[in-house]
From TrEMBL:
The keyword Transmembrane helix applies. It comes from the Archaea. The keyword Transmembrane applies. Keywords: Membrane, Transmembrane, Transmembrane helix. One of its GO terms (molecular function) is transmembrane transporter activity. One of its GO terms (cellular component) is plasma membrane. This is Nitrate/nitrite transporter NarK. It comes from Natrinema hispanicum.
């Protein structure tokens, strides 16, 4: 009897679970960053590279995959599984062998390269099963990515603070399980062709007014997103300690999980809303709320758990709610002849931008403390909102969300 998945809904569930499991690798190093920093005497800037290395590796992996059309050479389920296994192995090596920050950062970079074969491949797998309802399918996948990215913080809270190897081995095992699960998948009837990255299309991309505005919105969104996801556990710990909350490390880890994971619900709801109200409206609203939260974080800092918890959960809901809509906008605005290159370039620049904002936060924190450390991130959502509102006022917006803008 074949183990191969035969219906689109089973495929959605299977790939969604596999994606959730594999993406636990993304913040596995960041979740235990305080413990690793103490073990290896890392500075805050060096600790930030436990995440930044993944961002950079993802960019390199995505560009290589698109340029070499690797997804056309290797069947998606094998590519997904192999990359999940590779990322799991790199993470397990950090737990079992590594004794310095430099070696860990190299392995985190390789983890990022591997994850470039997981997330985009999962998108392609879903597109092969869904024509009608593709927005729902991609929304589920983005939600799975978000919850998976949050999971190391939950594992840290449950397994015990101060046990970095438990978290690292745990996430490696979960990711490897995701790789095994996806082997039961078979391509659907609508498998799209992979669009290679074409450097010659860059000029057309940067001179297309609609694409430029949508990209600027995305870049503003990314300036905030991963910096908050990286540093929210440390902010929460400092805030809970300042308020005198008992057992602050465990509560900080649980709240960090909740802050990131609730974004999975936000992405699903926003995707449905954008199809009805318009992509520019939904993305602008999301960035206004999340950008405002960057400023208000200083106001609620040190407050009781009953104030801080709902604040960061609302922040987490909106901060990633708009993420998939920027890619959807590019797919609608860019000419078919270079939409693949436009999406690749958008992703590459977006993740490169996150490296700067992630590295900036500890610098600001040393100057003003954790209360106001997130203020510089508000500039990203501000620019992003202005760009999307400008796009909405132009004729190009008629191509968004079936004419809804």
């Amino acid at each position: 009897m074949s183990m191969v998945v035969g219906t689109k809904w089973r495929a959605l569930v299977l790939v969604g679970i596999a994606e959730l499991f594999a993406m636990t690798l993304w913040f596995s190093g960041s979740a235990v960053g305080p413990e690793l920093a103490e073990m290896w005497n890392l500075t805050p800037a060096e600790t930030a590279w436990l995440t930044n290395a993944v961002q950079l590796g993802f960019v390199v992996g995505a560009l290589l995959s698109a340029s070499l059309t690797i997804a056309d050479v290797i069947r998606p389920r094998y590519l997904f599984a192999g990359c999940a296994f590779a990322g799991a192995a790199a993470t397990a090596l950090i737990a079992g062998v590594v004794e310095s920050g430099v070696s860990a950062i190299v392995l985190r970079f390789l983890t990022g390269v591997a994850l470039a074969g997981v997330y985009p491949t999962g998108m392609k797998m879903m597109a092969s099963w869904f024509v009608k309802g593709r927005g729902l399918a991609i929304g589920v996948l983005v939600g799975a990515l978000t919850v998976g990215s949050a999971s190391p913080h939950l594992l840290r809270a449950v397994s015990g603070i101060g046990q970095p190897r438990v978290v690292l081995y745990g996430t490696a095992a979960i990711a490897a399980t995701g790789g095994l699960l996806v082997l039961a998948y078979e391509d659907g009837p609508h498998q799209p062709e992979t669009a290679p990255f074409d450097p010659s299309a860059i000029w057309r991309i940067v001179t297309d007014r609609g694409v430029v505005l949508a990209n600027t919105g995305y870049f503003g969104h990314m300036w905030e997103l991963y910096a908050v996801w990286t540093w929210i556990p440390v902010y929460l710990l400092a805030s809970l300690e300042a308020s005198g909350t008992a057992n602050p490390e465990r509560y900080a880890a649980l709240l960090a999980f909740g802050t990131i994971a609730i974004g999975g619900v936000g992405a699903w709801i926003a995707g449905s809303a954008a199809d009805r109200a318009g992509r520019s409206v939904v993305t602008s609203l999301s960035m206004i709320v999340s950008g405002g939260a960057c400023l208000l974080a200083g106001v609620v800092y040190g407050s009781s758990l009953t104030v801080v918890a709902p604040f960061v959960l609302v922040w987490g809901f909106f901060i990633v709610a708009d993420s998939a809509q920027f890619s959807a906008a590019i797919s609608e605005l860019a000419d078919d002849s270079y939409v693949g290159s436009a999406l690749t370039l958008q992703t590459a620049i977006g993740f490169l931008i996150t490296i700067g904002s992630i590295q900036l936060i500890p610098v600001v924190q040393r100057a003003v403390g954790w209360r106001w450390a997130f203020i510089p991130l508000a500039i990203g959502p501000l620019i992003g909102t202005l760009s999307m509102l400008r796009l909405r006022s132009l004729p190009e917006s008629d191509r968004l969300a079936g004419g809804r803008g």
